[in-house]
Specification:
single chain; about 110 residues; 4-stranded antiparallel sheet; 3 helices; 6 strands; globular; YCII; Dimeric_a/b-barrel; YCII-related domain-containing protein
Length: about 110
């Protein structure tokens, strides 16, 4: 079956301690349990804010430059994600719709090669 990356997008100023209440945590747990029961969840992970990232860039001299912060300057970052193994894009979108509601966030769905 095809695998899909389902990413949760957060604003760069997102504060989990402020924005995430018990109802949201329960909704996400319910969604994760539903994915496991359906046998579609391969992996799930939450990420720290993009400001905690380290970016590596190839240099003309063959070296690698490591800098603090995200690779791209944006107003949003990926806050967490699932890797799902489902039969079709429509199935991935069904799970992504549930993720939008549980996480109260925008969601991006992308297929793996």
């Amino acid at each position: 079956m095809p695998q899909y990356f389902v990413a949760i997008h957060r604003s760069d100023d997102y504060q989990p301690a402020v924005a995430e209440d018990e109802a949201m945590a329960i909704a996400i747990d319910v969604l994760n349990n539903e994915m496991v029961a359906a046998g579609v969840r391969i992996f799930v992970g939450g990420l720290h804010p993009a400001r905690k990232a380290l970016s590596l860039r190839a240099q003309p001299d063959g070296g690698v430059l490591v800098t603090e912060g995200p690779y791209l300057n944006t107003k949003e970052h990926v806050g967490g994600f699932w890797v799902l193994d489902v039969a079709s894009l429509d199935d991935a979108l069904t799970w992504a719709n549930k993720a939008v509601i549980a996480c109260r966030a925008s969601v991006e769905v992308r297929p793996f090669h």
